[in-house]
Amino acid sequence: MKPDRLQAFSDGVLAILITILVLEFHIPNFSRGHLINAVILQWPILVAYIVSFLYVGTLWLFHHDFFSQLETIDRNLNLINLTVLFTITLVDYPTNLVATSIASGNTTDMKTAFIIYDIVALLISASFALLYWYVMAHPNLNNSSTTFNSSVKSDPLRSVAIYALAIVVTPFSLIAGAFLLCAGIIFHTFAYVHLSKQI
């Protein structure tokens, strides 16, 4: 099987996910002449959306460039790709939890929301680690002109470590936990640049 159909399906799933993220924007309740105040109070939704949009967008770039280097797809790789997509589609839920908990101002709820986001992000990185491992273990799937060095293969595991640390730290420090979550998401940008230099 050629990668084209898999990429088209995956692109469609990720496009729908990004659309679902933006659907969380609703017209706020406001008194006449006070719309600006009501809109400003929606800042948690906007921030959570921007972070998740950039996250999913980077994951799409990863996915697109990675599969563009493959010559063929087998059944196992199809199943692994479905696993990757499943984990990514979970992002919408913690995005809403983070936005709602920040708006509430309750520290305990915010910690819970960030930990759930960390868990989803960890699962996403773990699924990419599985994807990397499978393709490296089956060179017949890969374009003969493309090779990935060991440091690139380790990038998903590095992000798993960042999110695992965030899960441990967040119950003790919300600020440190939020920083680690954002650091993990930013790391994907550098990892993507790392990958793009190999293809």
From TrEMBL:
<feature type="transmembrane region" description="Helical">
    <location>
        <begin position="39"/>
        <end position="62"/>
    </location>
</feature>
<feature type="transmembrane region" description="Helical">
    <location>
        <begin position="6"/>
        <end position="27"/>
    </location>
</feature>
<keyword id="KW-0813">Transport</keyword>
<keyword id="KW-0633">Potassium transport</keyword>
<keyword id="KW-0472">Membrane</keyword>
<feature type="transmembrane region" description="Helical">
    <location>
        <begin position="160"/>
        <end position="193"/>
    </location>
</feature>
<feature type="transmembrane region" description="Helical">
    <location>
        <begin position="82"/>
        <end position="103"/>
    </location>
</feature>
<dbReference type="GO" id="GO:0015252">
    <property type="term" value="F:proton channel activity"/>
</dbReference>
<comment type="similarity">
    <text>Belongs to the TMEM175 family.</text>
</comment>
<dbReference type="Pfam" id="PF06736">
    <property type="entry name" value="TMEM175"/>
</dbReference>
<keyword id="KW-0630">Potassium</keyword>
<dbReference type="GO" id="GO:0005267">
    <property type="term" value="F:potassium channel activity"/>
</dbReference>
<keyword id="KW-0812">Transmembrane</keyword>
<keyword id="KW-0631">Potassium channel</keyword>
<keyword id="KW-0407">Ion channel</keyword>
<keyword id="KW-0406">Ion transport</keyword>
<protein>
    <submittedName>
        <fullName>Integral membrane protein</fullName>
    </submittedName>
</protein>
<dbReference type="GO" id="GO:0016020">
    <property type="term" value="C:membrane"/>
</dbReference>
<feature type="transmembrane region" description="Helical">
    <location>
        <begin position="115"/>
        <end position="135"/>
    </location>
</feature>
<keyword id="KW-1133">Transmembrane helix</keyword>
<dbReference type="InterPro" id="IPR010617">
    <property type="entry name" value="TMEM175-like"/>
</dbReference>
